[in-house]
Amino acid sequence: MTKEHTILNNLTKLVTWGKTARALGIALGTVLPWIIGSLCNQSQNGSIISFGSYLLVSTFIFLPKDHTFKILCLSAIIFSLFATVGIFTTLGSPFFFIFALFAAATQCISELRNNHLRMPFALATLGYFLSINQIPEDGPFFYALFFSVGCIWGIFITYFGFTKETKPLHTNKIDLKNNPEQQRFTISIAITTLLGGIIACFSPGTHPCWLPAAALRVIKPTQEQTIYRIKTRITGSLLGAAAGGILLGLSPIPWLHILLVCLVMFIMQIATAKRYGIWTFCLTAVALAFNFPATGDIFLMATDRVLLTAGGILIALTVLLILPNEPKTKEDSTSYPL
Predict the structure, then answer these.
(1) How far is CA 239 from its chain centroid?
(2) Which of 8, 14, 225, 292 would bridge with 220, disulfide CB 3.0–4.6 Å?
(3) pLDDT score at 84
(4) pLDDT tens digits, one per residue of 37-88
(5) What GO terms fall under cellular component here (predicted)?
(6) How would residue 268 be classed by pLDDT, with cut points 50, 70 and 90?
(7) Verdict on whether the full-model pTM lies above 0.70
(8) How far is the C-alpha of 116 from the C-alpha of 110, rounded, in Å?
């Protein structure tokens, strides 16, 4: 088989009519509240709803085989709670660090457990950090309200847009008292959170909390998994951060902003997390595109987000030696790479 035939076959597997229609439906469904908001001269509120939907939709590749709707509803509650706390939290306050550690702890436990709430807690922690200092014109209460509405809308997009997993997820036993590997991962998560939070307090720009969020995205239970995560994520994250800054620069042109976010999300759904570099690029770009106070030069905003992403990865590298070397159990093939 020639190289051209191999490329064509891979492209055919990647893009099918059914997959294209599903990806387009998910992308359009996610930005639909934003479109409606723009038509009603409420573009910012519409974008908040789309942000909540986006985070929930990005949590899943396949629907859980059992208790599907229950897990989706629990995920929506988790997202809404973390984002609501974030919007009412002041960067650098004692409560900022207290809840950051709590959020990181939920991410840690669900990561070790490897259950269906692993990704919801991980991205809800991201949502907590991304909600801080993002107070829109109508105030924090309406941010919390519209974000929660978006999560509810995201339940239906996810339920009708994704297929169910073909086999049940293998979960692990948690024994923090007697398992030194799990203890070391827990300590690494805590140090990463505190370091990232402290540095974020002294970071300029409109999105300093992206730094601890970026650090927590690459921390895994072992050194090997974390190194692999950094290697596979670094290019997509850095390019995605730059793209996110560029998208923010287009926010004064709402329709172009919405169109490009929809396009990037469509590509994200086509690629899926199996093509982790592309998926990470899209995830980062769209997540950073929802930044309400952001104004200024496109280049400066892109540079700011790239530096914050690089700083987060450097923080992850500082705790690498604390992590254990060998995993005790293999990560289940149905788990998600984020």
Answers:
(1) 15
(2) 225
(3) 97
(4) 999 999 889 999 999 999 999 888 888 888 899 999 999 999 999 999 999 9
(5) membrane
(6) confident
(7) yes
(8) 8
- How far apart CA 272 and CA 194 sit, in angstroms, is 31
* Measured distance CA(258)–CA(312) in Å, rounded: 28
Rounded to whole angstroms, how far apart are CA atoms 336 and 334?
A: 6
- Could you write out the DSSP letters of every residue in 243-267? HHHHHHHTTTSHHHHHHHHHHHHHH
Distant-in-sequence, close-in-space partners of 104: CB < 8 Å, separation ≥ 6: 125, 189, 190, 192, 193, 216
State the pLDDT at residue 8. 45
Spatial distance between the Cα atoms of 267 and 15, rounded to a whole number of angstroms: 10
Read off the tokens for 175: 């024994």
DSSP single-letter state for residue 202: T
* The predicted structure's pLDDT at residue 7: 46
Place of tokens 């294209």: 20
Average pLDDT of the residues in 126-153: 92
Token pair in block for residue 101: 């550690």
Q: Do 35 and 122 meet the contact criterion of CB atoms below 8 Å apart?
A: no
What are the tokens at 148? Answer: 């929660």
Task: Fill in the DSSP letter of residue 92.
Answer: T
User: Helix %, strand %, coil % for the chain, to 5?
Assistant: 70, 0, 30
Work out the average pLDDT over 138-152.
95
Distance (Å, rounded) from C-alpha 37 to C-alpha 24?
A: 20
